[in-house]
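Lab notebook: predicted structure, single chain.

Context: the supervisor wants predicted structures on file for every construct in the current expression panel, including those that have not yet been purified. This is the next one on the list. No modifications to the sequence; it matches the entry in the shared construct table.
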Amino acid sequence: MRPGLTLLSSLVAAVLATAATAQMADLSDPDALTARNVALSTAEHRGVSALRVVEAGERSEGEDKLAIVLPDGFRDGTIEVMLAGDRVEGAPEGARGFVGLAFRVQPDGSAFEAIYLRPYNGRSEDQLQRNHSIQYISYPAAGWRTLREETPGKYESYVDLEPGAWTRLRIEVAGTTARAYVGEASQPALIVRDLRMGTAEGGVALWIGPGTLAHFRDLSITRN
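Prediction complete. Output recorded below exactly as produced.
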């Protein structure tokens, strides 16, 4: 290979390697994040320092509860985090510890894709509830109820979960496809091949649902 081509190949390889490097997000300063309908604080959970996320104000059924970590610049790549979802004190039975990640978040959280867990469903004695342990939504056009009514079972699945336990969630995004991995599993718990926002670019956020007490740590973002 000619010297010029060798140098060019090396430069391309270096650029690709840099673009694919995982960046650890700092969750130690709640004031550095953009909160949308959530209250943020630092706390210790099961012996580990973490970011605590709960609803701000009165409980609501809205799906736009976000702590925006990266405001923009994410289209394809991998997001990985350790999270724990439980109920806040006094939450109703229907609160399932909803906790997850949002990606391709548009300015001010006006639209986003998200994949989240329902920890209280993971070991339910009701098989139908178990089948609703992990869920995809696209806010605001396609919430969980809309997707379940339109295509039952397509955008949710079973995965073993324990309320309040530290759980690894990894989401790989490429084009209109997202794959979600839970724990140390080598196979995805959920595959979505038709992301409703297409190939939009946006931010990355931590996500919670109604009645949730959530903790997050060790968030990494890799942009491809």
